[in-house]
């Protein structure tokens, strides 16, 4: 059986995903192309060698529609012979793209593949793809009617905070630490080798170096409304804009090959895609799938939580990561050591590949062996991936 190895991973700095953000005047195809162009150029790789470009995007409408991966690879200057496909597993879309790329290499269907992701939330606002329609349908709503029905992710984050008895102070302290770590990582040059710069943006635009838990404590709950408060009287309303991820624009790409192809092309593998898993979980709590996904991928790998040297857990909300930590027992000093999505940002379809990029570099910086990334996803899904540094 072939091994799937990671040769390189690169990302753009992440911009504010709103009008006036650093990338708000850039077409998402062109932003995506920047990461695809960089992954080839950094490795002196002839793009004609690439068997497939598998890309994640969530807002597949308007400028991100029509199989955006294909248009991005052409914009990047890849030959017309290179195919591309766009996948949607919500926030885990580009992590799923990595799984598909690795599976293709392991199966012998690919020698060289690129897993990438894009999200331009300034130009394709969150939720645009639904066109204001109900995407679940009456039978799904009927199935969960006795559980008070489906809810938005912000309510799920509140329910998680309540279930795991997480205090507002814990959420805000975790979030302030995310900003502190991300700001320090940029200052210390820890992101330099993994970034391809776009325009004049030289850092992640949503990092707030001066923020503190005390500052965050002054923010009002983001998801309170009279209707939700009536429906869920048990909620304490702790989730704010400050302990949630922002909306962002950004792109990332990961180069995956077989060991034979890497040798033939003169490429140096940096890590092996060791194990991967995807799970379904409660669609109302929605964001807790990272707990069984972590258990699943560790079992598949034959490893324990103590064997993992670095974790990247997507910070959709602080409550999600802290509930995961409470259940898994993971050492928080190994989690998101260079900051997470609360500070760096969460450009939905690009976040999985961004986490891989960060995780690969953290393992090298700390000389660790195993890294685990895990991503919560809308609908009660989660992807988990273990990579092994070579």
TrEMBL record:
Thiolase C-terminal domain span: 267-389
Thiolase N-terminal domain location: 5-260
Pfam families xref list: Thiolase_C, Thiolase_N
Gene3D superfamilies for this protein: 3.40.47.10
GO molecular function ontology, one term from the record: acyltransferase activity, transferring groups other than amino-acyl groups
Keyword Acyltransferase listed: yes
Active site residues according to the UniProt entry: 91 (acyl-thioester intermediate), 346 (proton acceptor), 376 (proton acceptor)
InterPro entries with a match to the protein in the record: Thiolase (IPR002155), Thiolase-like (IPR016039), Thiolase_C (IPR020617), Thiolase_CS (IPR020613), Thiolase_N (IPR020616)
Keywords: Acyltransferase, Transferase
Alphabetized PANTHER family for the sequence: ACETYL-COA C-ACYLTRANSFERASE, BLR7806 PROTEIN
Family that this chain belongs to: Belongs to the thiolase-like superfamily. Thiolase family.
Protein name: Thiolase family protein
Organism: Nocardioides marmorisolisilvae
């Amino acid at each position: 059986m072939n091994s799937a190895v990671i040769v390189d991973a690169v990302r753009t700095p992440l911009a504010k995903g709103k009008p006036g953000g650093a990338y708000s005047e850039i077409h998402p195809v062109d932003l995506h192309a920047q990461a695809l162009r960089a992954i080839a150029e950094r490795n002196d790789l002839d793009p004609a060698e690439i068997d497939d470009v598998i890309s994640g995007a969530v807002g597949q409408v308007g400028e991100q529609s029509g199989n955006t991966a294909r248009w991005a690879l052409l914009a990047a200057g890849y030959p017309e012979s290179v195919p591309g496909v766009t996948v949607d597993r919500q926030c885990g879309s580009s992590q799923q793209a990595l799984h598909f790329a690795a599976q293709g290499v392991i199966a012998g269907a690919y020698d060289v593949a690129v897993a990438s992701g894009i999200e331009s939330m300034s130009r394709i606002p969150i939720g645009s793809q639904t066109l204001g329609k109900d995407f679940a349908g009456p039978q799904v709503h009927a199935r969960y009617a006795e559980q008070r029905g489906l809810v938005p992710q912000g309510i799920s984050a509140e329910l998680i905070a309540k279930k795991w008895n997480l205090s507002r102070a814990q959420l805000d302290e975790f979030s302030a630490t995310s900003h502190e770590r991300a700001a320090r990582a940029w200052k210390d040059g820890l992101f330099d080798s993994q970034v391809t710069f776009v325009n004049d943006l030289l850092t992640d635009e949503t990092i707030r170096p001066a923020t503190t838990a005390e500052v965050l404590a002054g923010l009002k709950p983001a998801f309170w409304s009279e209707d939700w408060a009536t429906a869920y009287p048990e909620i304490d309303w702790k989730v704010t804009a400050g302990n949630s991820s922002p909306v962002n624009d950004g792109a990332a790409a990961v180069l995956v090959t077989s060991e034979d192809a890497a040798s033939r092309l003169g490429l140096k593998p940096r890590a092996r895609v060791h194990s991967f898993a995807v799970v379904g979980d409660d669609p109302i709590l929605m964001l807790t799938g990272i707990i069984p996904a972590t258990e699943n991928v560790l079992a598949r790998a034959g490893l324990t939580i103590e064997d993992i040297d670095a974790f990247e857990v997507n910070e959709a909300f602080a409550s999600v990561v802290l509930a995961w930590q409470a259940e898994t027992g993971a050492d928080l000093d190994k989690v998101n050591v260079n900051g997470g999505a609360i500070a760096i940002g969460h450009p939905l379809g690009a976040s999985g590949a961004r986490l891989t990029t960060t995780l690969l570099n953290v393992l090298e910086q700390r000389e660790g062996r195993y890294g685990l990334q895990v991503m919560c996803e809308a609908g009660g899904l989660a992807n988990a991936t273990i990579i092994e540094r070579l």
